[in-house]
Amino acid sequence: MGVEWGRIIELMPDIQQAFFETLIMISISFGVAFLIGLPLGILLFATDKGLFWENRFAKSVIGFIANMIRSIPFIILLVALIPLTNLIAGTTIGPYAASVSLSVAAIPFFARLVETSFREIDKGVIEAAIAVGATPFMIIKDVLLPEAKPSLIQGITLTLISLIAYSAMAGVVGGGGIGDLAIRFGYYRYDNTIMIVTVVILIVLVQLIQQAGDWTSKTIDKR
């Protein structure tokens, strides 16, 4: 099962297009996951027992919804969200359509990582902030986010890597990207060269993101 360089050169425009589509899916879905998942993660943490927004009902509802979405296999979620995808994107195929399902899957995933990051903070630091009269907003801005920054960077890294895997899976249902290229050429046409190329691209992309995340986390960790 060798690599045919002539075949790679021939399909280079398709490979570049697939890579660009993968970046579109990851960028959109992570942006949505960050904007919605970060506040949700804060709520999951702050509404817990003994904290400044303690609310058992809110904690239970948000936690249940997050767990429910996370428990659904992504391929099933893709199919189940077709009506929502069509409503938002106006189509059910392509990278922008796939971004809808990717975003829905990534939001609770990232929210739980944010909650976990905050749980690693020494509660004494939070209690000290409350004792000096800090408001909830000040605690979040000046205590939680700065203290949890290295862990949050790791959470962002893990979310991006998970989205790469999910985006490849989205190719099965016409989502575009590297996964779609592997299915159309590598699987349906038994093109081993394309299968190898797509796997290598995904591995390199994951490694680059992981290395960047590790370096950034260590750089900003002042402990």
Automatic annotation (TrEMBL):
GO terms for biological process: D-methionine transmembrane transport. It is a multi-pass membrane protein. Residues 19-209 form the ABC transmembrane type-1 domain. It is found in: Cell membrane. SUPFAM superfamilies: MetI-like. Keywords: Cell membrane, Membrane, Transmembrane, Transmembrane helix, Transport. One of its GO terms (cellular component) is plasma membrane. The keyword Ribosomal protein does not apply. InterPro entries: AA_ABC_Transporter_Permease, MetI-like, MetI-like_sf. Pfam families: BPD_transp_1. Its main location: membrane. It comes from the Bacteria. PROSITE patterns: ABC_TM1 (PS50928). The chain crosses the membrane at residues 22-45, 57-81, 93-113, 125-144, 156-178, 190-209. The keyword Transferase does not apply. Belongs to the binding-protein-dependent transport system permease family. CysTW subfamily. This is Methionine ABC transporter permease.
